[in-house]
């Protein structure tokens, strides 16, 4: 039975908006490459990120299978939250812009890969394209 591993890509934040044809203040339609009328969006994302296409082929060559993954947009499009006390989770929540104010690295994307053994999982981790480092973990089987 194959196990699933997640590979978290830790590196400096990137200008995701430049690839999606919009600026941070642009409308969502201007940032979605699949949206009608999107401008400046890459027609073929594989052409914009060839190292990730090569990684996906290398995973198959190892006998494993990519089952999910995504690039995450710039950290300005998210943040962190510390939930409030029980019964007031949202009302007393503390929100912070950006992921980690004390570091220059963020998680810029992830892959989910199925493999039959831990040795292959470790080898896959070394192949994930990054300008930083990769954190990899076996996914807990929740049945979802």
Number of strands: 6
Would you list the SSEs in sequence order as H and E?
EHHHHEEEEHE
* Mean pLDDT, all residues: 83
Q: Could you say which structural class the secondary elements and strand pairing correspond to?
A: alpha+beta
For the record, give the distance between the C-alpha atoms at the N and C termini, rounded to a whole number.
Answer: 16 Å
Across the major sheet, the strand order is: 2-5-1-6
Regarding quaternary structure, what we see is single chain
* Rg (C-alpha, Å): 18 Å
Major β-sheet profile: 4 strands, antiparallel
Name the poorly predicted regions. Answer: 24-43
Taken from the alpha-carbon principal axes, the silhouette is globular
Percentage of helical residues? 10-25%
Discrete helix count: 5
The fraction of residues assigned to DSSP E strands is: 25-35%
How would you concisely characterize the structure shown here?
With 144 residues, the chain is α+β, with helices and mostly antiparallel strands. It is 24% helix and 29% strand.
Overview of the molecule:
With 144 residues, the protein is of the alpha+beta class. The chain is built from five helices and six strands. It has helices at 16-19, 28-31, 45-48, 50-61, 118-127, and strands at residues 3-12, 65-71, 79-82, 94-97, 105-115, 133-138. The strands form two sheets. A four-stranded antiparallel beta sheet has the order 2-5-1-6, covered by helices on one side. A two-stranded antiparallel sheet has the order 3-4. The longest helix is centred in the middle third of the chain and has 12 residues, at 50-61. 12% of the residues are buried.
